[in-house]
Design goal:
It is a single chain. 4% of the residues lie in helices and 44% in strands. It has a seven-stranded antiparallel β-sheet with strand order 1-4-5-9-8-7-6, with no helix packed on it. A three-stranded antiparallel β-sheet has the order 3-2-10, with no helix packed on it. The radius of gyration is 15 Å and the shape is globular.
Length: 129
Amino acid sequence: MDKRANPAPGFQRNPDKVITIEPYRGAVTVRAGETVIARSTRARLLSEPPYTAVFYIPFDDIDFSKLARAEHSTHCPYKGNASYWSVLPAGESGKDAMWAYEQPFDEMTEIRDHGAFYTGKVTIEATPS
């Protein structure tokens, strides 16, 4: 029996589900128009086929003064409950543009205190080093 405090039920039900998290070697910048929302050289790249890979940026590298916490939330059986933020400089198109797993399942602790952004709501520039 799994004795971890917060195990992911999805991993127990589907051992074939493969999610990888790797450090991104380079810089990631998130913008709304000309306004920089986040800039990091410590981003992590989460791959979860068949979905497109996603950058997770440390909270310390995100300008939360340009965000507003949203009421929207979702649940992933592999990562946990996601909270959302709207990107204020993006206006209506920035609604719920960033999400984060503040209390992820034990298998996903590498993305705790990291936020990810929808590519259709902001511009994400990744420059490999």
